Amino acid sequence: MQSKNRIFDDVAKVASGAVSTLTGVREEIDGLIRQQIERVMAEMDIVPREEFDAVKAMAAKARAEQDALNVRIAALEEALEKAKK
C-alpha cells in the first residue's frame, strides 16, 4: 500500500514538473511569436493601434472644424449678398 502511494506521489511530482516546463515553453514561444509579429509589422510599415486611433481622432476633429467653417462661410456669403442688394 505504501509503495502505491509513493508511486502515485512520484508520478504526481513528474507530472507537476512537466506542466511547469510546458508552461515555461509556452510563454517563451508566445514571446518569440510576438517579436516576429512586431518585426513583420515594422517591415510592412503598419502603424500601431494607438497611433491609428490618434490620427483618426485628429481627422475627426479637422472634419468637424471644416464643417463649422463651411457653415460660417455660407452665412458670411449670404450676409454679403444681402448687403449688396
From TrEMBL:
<protein>
    <recommendedName>
        <fullName>Pyrroline-5-carboxylate reductase</fullName>
    </recommendedName>
</protein>
<dbReference type="Pfam" id="PF04380">
    <property type="entry name" value="BMFP"/>
</dbReference>
<dbReference type="InterPro" id="IPR007475">
    <property type="entry name" value="UbiK"/>
</dbReference>
